[in-house]
Design a protein that fits this description.
227 residues, globular, alpha/beta
Length: 227
């Protein structure tokens, strides 16, 4: 089980051969110029919300393997308007769980905003908890620190993907508290460095997590990591 980081909040899990892509955004990320959206070829695409920096390359990435797109109901309505077939879209809602060939996924709360690129209401922003082969992975999506995260500690989360860039989401200090709320030791940072408002000091951020006795990975674009 592994993941490849494509920058910002875009990364792809490899669940024993099944490729699961999160929030496809490569083309307009200035730090991901060496990558091409056309090279993405997932089996599934999960969207945490509809902002442009999370869905810009959705259509291109979906075409590779005619991927199934998964999201909250209102964002799913926008997905279908992009010409993606209805049978290739799974819509569900907060608190719901979908069972897929690679495992099960629960949709959980995120504290953010959500609209689609055409300015329409996108429903709630969300996060996901993946249960795959005995491991539990929390992908928070774009979120502020929220008390609802305490509800997730019962899942014994092995890895948490948390935004750390601040400005549009929680910053590193709040992410440390979020990690403590969900009781997860292994944190992968997302939503950092892509644009000036979310550029971080890597050394200071790593020190912050180390002092909290947490293991932080600041993934490098294009690199693959084991879980």
């Amino acid at each position: 089980m592994k993941y490849t980081y494509y920058g910002h909040s875009c990364f792809e899990f490899d669940f024993n051969g099944t490729k699961v892509l999160l929030d496809p955004f490569v083309t307009y990320n200035p730090l991901a110029k060496s990558l091409k959206a056309e090279d993405l070829s997932p089996d599934y695409i999960f969207l945490t919300h509809g902002h442009e920096d999370h869905v810009a390359d959705l259509v291109t990435a979906q075409k590779g393997k005619d991927a199934v797109v998964v999201s909250i109901v209102e964002t799913a309505a926008w997905v279908r308007k992009q010409g993606i077939a209805k049978d290739k879209v799974i819509e569900f809602n907060l608190g719901g769980t979908v069972h897929l060939p690679f495992g099960k996924v629960k949709m959980v709360f995120a504290a953010h905003s959500n609209s689609t690129p055409d300015g329409q209401y996108g429903g709630f922003p969300v996060g996901y908890v993946f249960f795959v082969d005995g491991k539990t992975i929390y992908v928070s999506g774009d979120t502020a620190l929220t008390m609802e995260m305490k509800l997730l500690e019962r899942f014994n989360i092995d890895y948490a993907f948390l935004p750390i860039g601040g400005h549009y989401t929680m910053d590193a200090e709040d992410a440390v508290i979020a990690a403590q709320f969900v009781k997860c030791q292994n944190i992968i940072g997302t939503h950092f460095d892509s644009f000036p408002p979310i550029k971080i000091d890597h050394d200071a951020t790593e020190k912050l997590f180390s002092e909290a006795d947490l293991t932080l990975t600041l993934p490098v674009i294009g690199e693959t990591y084991s879980l």
